[in-house]
């Protein structure tokens, strides 16, 4: 039914093997995103309120995904041997090529002209969805369709949907989050090209995505790919850095390079774009992604601050209290000494503080209080207007006085 292109066809991706479909940068970026995610998850777990938000967020994610898959199961067309059998055969062919044993559920969804496909997962089941216009544009048994199905199976094989949930905190970080997701797509394009065993068909499928179903297949692939090298500058760089997909012109460039297994030379990016991209967190421009992720970053920073500020404030108050208590002890001792020497209590602080007196200079309360004193039976008692009167300080002061004198 689906004629398999000869394995040594001129357009076969000569360098691709099942072992090298995932690009190395996906693995290296995974490590960074994993570390960032663990740190954020730990911070969320430490602050109970953070965990509370994570649970709420997770609940709505689960609810949304449940409704999406319910919509697919009830409204979209489930592909099988009795329904769109050619497409079903393409899926089985691709699964066999990629070594996928559990064939995912494939659905065709009417999409009002949109050309797209995606993979998702719910309750332990994998779903692949192809939009109806994309199916019409590519055909059910074409190598182009096998490329698209192979790309989506790549997401399933690489467990990208699970990673999207557990690495969500890391994926929201600017620069690294989008860069990691771009690596996903580059890897999955290789899965697709390997599954189709036809680089030209993969390129044609990308050209349909770029130029539409009508003229896409006839577009000049080399001319489109050259836009990746020729259209540079600050805004293209910023678009690339904040996008979760490699640009279509780059994807075509990368796919074309698979025909003779050569590495493409990435054209440089404007360095200022990296700086600006720092303030545009991960997410797709135009899908509300940046705003949602910006909000999440604000929440994360708020939680970290909520953890750090009380701890800092505690240390500050403690050091202030210690300094104030020392002042109180010093003043109380001076008042007692004055009473001992003069036979009467002091009338003002100036009696005991100042050059040549018991305390050379009036101590200043670090919390901004002022000191008042009263004479009691057991001796002078100094009270701070802010910190109040610490009974332990007086006891300690008394101990020091009776021991010292
Ligand atoms: Zn993808």
Automatic annotation (TrEMBL):
<keyword id="KW-0812">Transmembrane</keyword>
<dbReference type="GO" id="GO:0006508">
    <property type="term" value="P:proteolysis"/>
</dbReference>
<dbReference type="InterPro" id="IPR001915">
    <property type="entry name" value="Peptidase_M48"/>
</dbReference>
<keyword id="KW-0482">Metalloprotease</keyword>
<dbReference type="InterPro" id="IPR050083">
    <property type="entry name" value="HtpX_protease"/>
</dbReference>
<keyword id="KW-0862">Zinc</keyword>
<keyword id="KW-1133">Transmembrane helix</keyword>
<dbReference type="GO" id="GO:0046872">
    <property type="term" value="F:metal ion binding"/>
</dbReference>
<dbReference type="InterPro" id="IPR000983">
    <property type="entry name" value="Bac_GSPG_pilin"/>
</dbReference>
<dbReference type="GO" id="GO:0005886">
    <property type="term" value="C:plasma membrane"/>
</dbReference>
<dbReference type="GO" id="GO:0015628">
    <property type="term" value="P:protein secretion by the type II secretion system"/>
</dbReference>
<keyword id="KW-0479">Metal-binding</keyword>
<dbReference type="Pfam" id="PF01435">
    <property type="entry name" value="Peptidase_M48"/>
</dbReference>
<dbReference type="InterPro" id="IPR045584">
    <property type="entry name" value="Pilin-like"/>
</dbReference>
<keyword id="KW-0488">Methylation</keyword>
<feature type="transmembrane region" description="Helical">
    <location>
        <begin position="294"/>
        <end position="312"/>
    </location>
</feature>
<dbReference type="GO" id="GO:0015627">
    <property type="term" value="C:type II protein secretion system complex"/>
</dbReference>
<keyword id="KW-0472">Membrane</keyword>
<keyword id="KW-0645">Protease</keyword>
<dbReference type="GO" id="GO:0004222">
    <property type="term" value="F:metalloendopeptidase activity"/>
</dbReference>
<feature type="domain" description="Peptidase M48">
    <location>
        <begin position="84"/>
        <end position="257"/>
    </location>
</feature>
<protein>
    <submittedName>
        <fullName>Peptidase M48 Ste24p</fullName>
    </submittedName>
</protein>
<keyword id="KW-0378">Hydrolase</keyword>
<feature type="transmembrane region" description="Helical">
    <location>
        <begin position="30"/>
        <end position="63"/>
    </location>
</feature>
<feature type="transmembrane region" description="Helical">
    <location>
        <begin position="272"/>
        <end position="288"/>
    </location>
</feature>
<comment type="similarity">
    <text>Belongs to the peptidase M48 family.</text>
</comment>
<keyword id="KW-1003">Cell membrane</keyword>
């Amino acid at each position: 039914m689906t004629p398999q292109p000869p394995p040594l066809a001129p357009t076969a991706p000569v360098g691709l093997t099942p072992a090298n479909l995932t690009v190395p940068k996906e693995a290296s970026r995974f490590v960074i995103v994993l570390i960032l995610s663990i740190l954020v998850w730990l911070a969320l777990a430490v602050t109970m309120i953070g965990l509370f938000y994570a649970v709420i967020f997770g609940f709505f994610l689960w609810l949304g995904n449940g409704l999406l898959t319910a919509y697919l199961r009830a409204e979209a067309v489930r592909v099988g041997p009795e329904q769109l059998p050619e497409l079903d055969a393409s899926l089985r062919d691709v699964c066999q090529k990629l070594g996928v044993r559990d064939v995912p559920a494939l659905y065709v969804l009417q999409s009002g002209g949109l050309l797209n496909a995606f993979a998702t997962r719910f309750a332990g089941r994998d779903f692949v969805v192809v939009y109806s216009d994309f199916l019409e544009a590519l055909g059910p048994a074409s190598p182009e369709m096998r490329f698209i199905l192979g790309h989506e199976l790549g997401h399933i094989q690489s467990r990208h949907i699970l990673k999207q949930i557990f690495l969500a905190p890391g994926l929201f970080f600017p620069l690294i989050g989008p860069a990691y997701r771009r690596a996903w797509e580059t890897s999955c394009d290789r899965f697709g090209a390997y599954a189709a065993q036809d680089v030209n068909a993969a390129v044609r499928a990308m050209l349909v995505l770029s130029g539409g179903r009508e003229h896409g297949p006839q577009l000049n692939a080399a001319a489109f790919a050259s836009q990746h090298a020729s259209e540079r500058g600050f805004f293209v760089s910023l678009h690339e850095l904040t996008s979760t997909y490699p640009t279509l012109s780059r994807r075509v460039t990368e796919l074309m390079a698979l025909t003779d297994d050569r590495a493409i030379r990435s054209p440089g990016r404007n360095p200022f774009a990296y700086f600006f991209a720092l303030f545009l967190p991960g997410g797709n421009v135009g899908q509300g992604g940046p705003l949602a992720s910006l909000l999440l970053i604000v929440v994360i920073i708020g939680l970290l601050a909520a953890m750090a500020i009380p701890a800092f404030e505690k240390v500050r108050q403690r050091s202030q209290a210690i300094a104030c208590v020392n002042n109180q002890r010093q003043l109380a001792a001076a008042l007692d000494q004055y009473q001992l020497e003069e036979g009467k209590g002091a009338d003002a602080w100036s009696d005991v503080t100042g050059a040549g007196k018991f305390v050379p200079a009036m101590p200043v309360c670090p919390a901004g209080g002022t000191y008042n004193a009263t004479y009691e039976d057991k001796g002078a008692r100094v009270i701070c207007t802010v910190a109040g009167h610490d009974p332990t300080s007086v006891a300690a002061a008394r101990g020091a006085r009776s021991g010292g004198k």
